[in-house]
Amino acid sequence: MSFLPTTQQLRDRAQAALDRIGVTVPEGDDLHARSPITGERLFGLRATTTEQAGQAIGEAAEAFRTWRVTPPPARGELVRTLGELLRTHKSDLADLITIEAGKIRSEALGEVQEMIDICEFAVGLSRQLYGRTIASERPGHRLAETWHPLGVVGVISAFNFPAAVWSWNTAVALVCGDAVVWKPSELTPLVSLASSHLLDRAIEQVGAPRELHRLLLADRAVGEQLVDDPRVALVSATGSTRMGREVAPRVAARFGRVLLELGGNNATVVAPSADLELALSGIVFAAAGTAGQRCTTLRRLIVHRDVVDQLVEKLATVYGRLPIGDPFEDSTLVGPLITDSAADAMAAALERAQADGGKIVAGGRRLDTAGGAYVEPAIVRMPRQSPIVRTETFAPILYVLTYDTFEEAVELHNDVPQGLSSSIFTRDQQEAERFLAADGSDCGIANVNIGTSGAEIGGAFGGEKETGGGRESGSDAWRAYMRRATNTVNYSSTLSLAQNVSFL
Ligand code: UN1
Q1: Looking at 77, 100, 211, 261, which residue is catalytic?
Q2: In this structure, which of 39, 205, 224, 237 has its CB flanked by the most CB atoms within 10 Å?
Q3: How much is the pTM?
Q4: Alpha carbon of 195 to those of 113, 170, 192, 425: distances in Å?
């Protein structure tokens, strides 16, 4: 393992990035910024109080009144400006992502690229918020639908994509005419302050209402406030299934809308015809990349009996050479886990898996470093899909299961509570199509000959079952951020009733 930077070096690097972005950290003792690289505290921060949060929601609701009647292409101009600022500060924001989330440099830059991409998508979208015209059954009538801005969107985001998930929601919500109130993870306050400040700068540059975006740097209680406040029209929450289980009924109780992006327990099927070299690269990035801390991380590998030994052997060799350590180091592929408790959860899961008859064939140990939680990504061969395999552990553990028939592979694949991402490696076209068919993968994302993670922003992102059913980012996911009105216009001089009803 490479030498780690000191906490002071990280603090200086973070400060330099914050200075270039132009943001001042609100000093205080309520919360703190820390880095998983050394596991130590960087800065103390002042949190948003519940009173301030209430006020922020009110201000956003007020800004919405102006924003909703601003023409969408003018709203797009704001998002275009944000995209430009993100391009200018790509490296600075990536620094903060590495410092607070522990992502390797290339993935941190990739996260900012994803933000730039969604801004560009949203700018185009600002001229494409299409409604339909519908054939009316009545003479002299026009039937159409119009999409209107929804209101205040509350965004709750997680540590692992501390900026991109916010941008998917915010760029789209803003062109849809909504205002945004953001409650980020307490683990990544600097990334949140920096992202939010870049948007504030864009808002100022284009002369949009200042209160269009509000950042709540606070703990769980303020998150709950956002969930319960009737002025928040849509709560878009990314996090664990446990969190979603609490959020959904509370928002439903006040007839608000939710968009949920919860846990994944993603699997890849490797068929006997698969190109194993291709599969190998796809699997390693999906399973060990981001130290297993993506919601799209590959957690289950379902391999045909004819190729399983060969594939596992190749994987174990690659795993044995994975460079683990300082995420700023160019050669590093696996950075730290976010906290000690994530490493503890990984150790506990490995123990459970072994108790169920699993055999660790690669990795699984925590490296002996002071501070950060560095672990070797693990591969575990399992005799069956036991309860621990069906559970999402947010760490780099890849469980390997064996199958004989395609039907059995699909059954194993779908037999988990989560339904986010999936893929198959095969050169058999029929098999690939069957995996994508109605009785194939039951996930929101189903891929062929690539891994489960690293989706592009152009498609709708999200999943089924305990993943929560939400879709954000590309395609027509924008509709969740708007309200639909059906309009019937009578341009004749007769009042004709639908369904041929006569009255008067
Ligand atoms: C997440 O882990 O919460 O598809 C989002 C991917 C990324 C987004 C992951 N584009 O892996």
Answers
A1: 261
A2: 237
A3: 0.97
A4: 13, 11, 5, 37
